[in-house]
Amino acid sequence: MIIDAYNTTQDVRGRSDYLTGVRPGEEPPAHTPFDPRRILDRMDAAGVDMAMVCSLAQRIENDFIIGMQDAHPDRFIGFGQVMPQADDALAEIDRLAEAGIRGLKLHPSMHGYHVADHGLLDPVFRACARHGMTVLINALDDAFCAPFAIEEIAQGHPDVPTIIAHMGAVWNVPEAIIVAERRDHVYLETSATLMADVKRAYARLGGEKILMGSEWPGSDFDLERLKIAKAIPDAGDRALVEGLNIARLLRIEVDA
Predict the structure, then answer these.
(1) Could you tell me the domains of the chain?
(2) What share of the chain is helix, strand, coil (3-state, %, to 5)?
(3) Strand, helix or coil at 34?
(4) Which UniProt keyword terms apply here (predicted)?
């Protein structure tokens, strides 16, 4: 089974150039509900069976993600999102778990906190542990969530699988590999990374600690699968990276 570990969707349109993709001075498109066929068609074209979906950090849309997972439970794996400093953060994690959401995405730089803030993050990780949720941390060359800072918070929560998204690309990849090597419950996700960095991680970690992610629509599933195929030539290890690892973390049954 091919399972992509990191993708974003959003139902929000409006004045943001970033979200609408229009050029300055152009009128943004009128809001229309997000059509899941946009991502499903790309998944089908690349032979991807299931994909994790979460909202962009610019705006948290947990109900939208819950709706996508409920509408297509055999294709979408929902990850929710909270701002840890919000008064209702822990209650929202409880609500997400009750709705069947399997993981939590954190974006420290976008939401204005440091990932090694134990006062903020320890309660969040404890809530995820209670619900058996995995945590994914967006980590792109970011002082708010450098890999060693992620290790600082993750080491106290060995029962919470923790994914370093983007492997800390570009300059923090060596640190991310070190952290994944010495922490059994820390994993590396490949979107936005160079093929050379995936090769480097594979040489040090083998296939068990790497998760393929595309971060659609920023990239595409077929491109990420091609990168993984070139970086990880062994078919058995590639099967782990392309789906079996994340299936194990999220307790998704896979046919033998």
Answers:
(1) 3-250 (3.20.20.140)
(2) 45, 15, 45
(3) coil
(4) Lyase
Encoded amino acid at 166, one letter: H
CA 48 – CA 163 distance, rounded (Å): 20
Three-state SS across 167-198? Answer: HHCCCCHHHHHHHHHHCCCEEEECCCCCHHHH
In a 13 Å sphere around the CA of 133, the CA atoms on its Cβ side amount to 29
In the block, which residue shows the tokens 């778990």?
A: 97
pLDDT one digit per residue (tens) for the chain, 256 residues: 999 999 999 886 655 666 566 677 777 666 667 889 999 999 999 999 999 999 988 889 999 999 999 999 999 999 999 999 999 999 999 999 999 999 999 999 999 999 999 999 999 999 999 999 999 999 988 889 999 999 999 999 999 999 999 999 999 999 999 999 999 999 999 999 999 999 999 999 999 999 999 999 999 999 999 999 999 999 999 999 999 999 999 999 988 6
DSSP-assigned beta bridge partners for residue 134: 103
